[in-house]
């Protein structure tokens, strides 16, 4: 969400600049460069991984000593077709971590909550289509994966997200 807000702010500033000086900008070389950048910047921003904020927060919580749970942990070498159900599984297990943090008053609770919020936004933008439902039928359910400790869970989660970002 933070990255999205930064993009909106940048685009709005460029919009204001163009709105007030559009005709003047068309008359000189600097103006044409600015117009080109306005057209180019949103495309380059979209090229960043949409999971970047989640990755940052995962890095922040991976060393937490407050969190001591066993979690269903998907394999990182599953079929590409199963990537979305795997991501959903990781975020379901993040709910368990949030509950653990609320009970134990973890020092990293806000980062865990951020992971869930940003992840849910990204998953919501990736609505499951009918074809995905058919392919996910051959994918494992979350509860079918082996339970692993928090550290192994986070390591696997990071690997899965890094695959998504490639």
**Rg from alpha-carbon coordinates:** 21 Å
- Domain tally: 2
Helical proportion? Answer: 55-70%
Structural class estimated from helices and strands: mainly alpha
Mean pLDDT rating: 79
Distance between the termini: 20 Å
Q: Say how many strands there are.
A: 2
Subcellular location: Secreted
InterPro entries: 4_helix_cytokine-like_core, IL-15, IL-15/IL-21_fam, IL-15_avian
Organism: Centropus bengalensis (lesser coucal)
Main location: secreted
Tags for this model:
mainly alpha, Growth Hormone, Chain: A, 2 domains, 7 helices, 2 strands, elongated
Please explain how this structure is put together.
The chain is mainly alpha-helical. It is built from seven helices and two strands. The protein starts with a helix and ends with a helix.
How would you summarize the topology of this molecule?
Layout: H1 2-26, H2 29-46, H3 52-61, E1 70-72, H4 83-104, H5 109-125, H6 130-136, E2 147-149, H7 150-165
Antiparallel strand pairs: 1-2
